[in-house]
Amino acid sequence: MKKLIKLITVTLCCLSVSAIPANADKKTEEQIKTGLGILGDILKGGGNSPAQKTQTQTNPVSTAPAQIENERGRGATSTPTGFSITTQHPDLKVKVKRCEVAGRTCIIDLILENVSGEDIKIYGANIFKTVAYDDEGNQYKMDETDNSKRTFFYGIGSSKTDWWQYSNIDLLNEVPTKARIQLEKVPEDATKIVRLVWPLGCEALGLGSNKPITFYNIPISREGN
Fold first, then answer.
1. How far is 169 from 156, CA to CA, in rounded Å?
2. Which of 153, 143, 217, 145 is nearest to 185 (CA)?
3. CB 179 within 8 A of CB 60
4. Is the N or C terminus of the chain more exposed, i.e. has fewer CB atoms within 10 Å?
5. 94: DSSP letter
6. For residue range 10-52, what is the model confidence (pLDDT) as tens digits?
7. pTM to 2 decimals?
8. Is 6 helix (H, G, I), strand (E, B) or coil?
9. Which one, of 175, 174, 214, lies nearest residue 196 by Cα?
10. What CA–CA distance (Å, rounded) separates 29 from 192?
11. What is the DSSP string of 210-225?
12. Over the stretch 88-110, which tens digit does the pLDDT of each residue have?
């Protein structure tokens, strides 16, 4: 059988020359030679058919969607398990100086810093989205019309008595500015503020109620501890 295949292969090689028309151009000549060569490979069992070669090339493409989904899974974000702050813009820096409870009042002292290269103005963007939650399931809100029921207050800069300040506030470039958030009716068994959403607007930085500053897992210290 092997001798027969060898004889056929040799014959095809001889025919590869005689089968080419005398007036054939170079492209036609190459196509005839390629076709005869593939046929010879198939008879010898040493090569793949065109269909087999195409399948080999398309197999990697078929796995691409699964690989893309895996990459998306690795990149997916989740709620932080430790303390962190999301400011929504790299030119607005926020630091927590302390989070302390005395009685049932929690004071969160902050430092805001504008590093945009120019002076900017910020303002309270949306009291209805200004909210905090502790690890005991309690919620602290600003959207109460009755001040006696409000449990979330804040002030920025020199404001100490007007806790809910909705007007424009200057943030000078590279000048740290004090801010304070005050939560009321905090229970004794609360140990951290698991999430605090603070929408501050700034036209220069493109910030607003849809891009709030968000704090995660702020530890609470107690007076005298």
1. 8
2. 153
3. no
4. N
5. E
6. 455 454 445 455 555 555 556 555 555 554 554 455 444 444 4
7. 0.62
8. helix
9. 214
10. 81
11. TS-EEEEEEEPEETT-
12. 999 999 999 999 999 999 999 99
